[in-house]
Amino acid sequence: MDLFTTEKVINILPFDGITNNHGVFLTKIEADFYYKNFFETIPWEHDQAIIFGKIITTKRKVAWFGDEEFDYTYSKITKKANIWTNELLALKQIVEKESEETYNSCLLNLYHSGEEGMAYHSDGEKMLKKNGAIASVSLGATRKFSFKHKENNHRVDVILEHGSLLVMKGETQTHWLHRLPPSKKVISPRINLTFRTIQR
Ligand SMILES: O=C(O)CCC(=O)C(=O)O
Ligand SMILES: [Fe+2]
Question: What are the structural domains, with CATH classification, of the chain?
Answer without folding.
Answer: 15-52+104-200 (2.60.120.590)
